[in-house]
């Protein structure tokens, strides 16, 4: 699965903006899922997770069913970007997905609020394609590194976990200490 295309979910209520971002991302080899508001995005995420495929695809060829990154506007009808972010972060099956606000809300207080919520980044509209792509690449690189570490330590059943190693070493230490104490008791006794 290392050769699969990264999936980016773009959530915005402006169809022209979505198409522009989609064009930029697809030209760089990313697969792009879109939604027009937070509620639709959340429904797509839940459906994708439940069915193990994206709702608009009959069978996702790469076996991936969640995006690798979410880019979301803040000001949207039905459910805004803040609401979507809160729902994604509170769901243990979605909370690992990097979340970037891409919005026209550029006041210092807006940026600060987005960061306080725990967004992974905050980009102002209009965003230069190079800035957008640099942010996407950086977030995906970190995601890839986390996945590699997880697979190395948790995902491979042949790799002993740190906890398992500590338990084994503790048991060996206890056996050695007991052996020494018993030997001293027999010799001294």
Task: Write out key terms for the chains shown.
189 residues, alpha/beta, Rossmann fold, 2 domains, 5-stranded parallel β-sheet, 53% helix
How is this structure best described in words?
The chain has helices at about 15-25, 40-50, 80-90, 110-115, 130-155, 160-189, and strands spanning about 5-10, 30-35, 70, 100-105, 120-125. The protein is elongated. The chain has 2 domains: about 5-155, Response regulator (Rossmann fold); about 160-189. The longest helix is centred in the C-terminal third of the chain and has 27 residues, at about 130-155. It is α/β, with parallel strands linked by helices and about 190 residues long. It is built from 6 helices and 5 strands; from the N terminus they run βαβαβαβαβαα.
Q: Would you spell out the secondary-structure blueprint of this structure?
A:
Blueprint: E1 7-11, H1 15-27, E2 31-35, H2 38-51, E3 69-72, H3 81-90, E4 99-103, H4 108-117, E5 121-124, H5 129-155, H6 162-188
Helix pairs in contact: 2-3
The top level CATH class name of the largest domain: Alpha Beta
Determine Rg (CA atoms, Å): 24 Å
Q: Strand fraction band? A: 5-15%
Span from first to last CA?
65 Å
Mean pLDDT: 84
- Note the main sheet: 5 strands, parallel
Enter the CATH topology name of the largest domain. Answer: Rossmann fold
> What is the H level of CATH, i.e. the homologous superfamily of the largest domain?
Response regulator
Fraction of helical residues: 40-55%
Structural class: alpha/beta
* CATH architecture title of the largest domain: 3-Layer(aba) Sandwich
Task: Give the strand tally.
Answer: 5
Provide the succession of SSEs.
EHEHEHEHEHH
The helix tally amounts to 6
Sequence of strands across the biggest β-sheet: 2-1-3-4-5
How many domain regions? 2
Given as residue ranges, the uncertain stretches (5+ residues, pLDDT < 50) are: 58-63
Shape: elongated
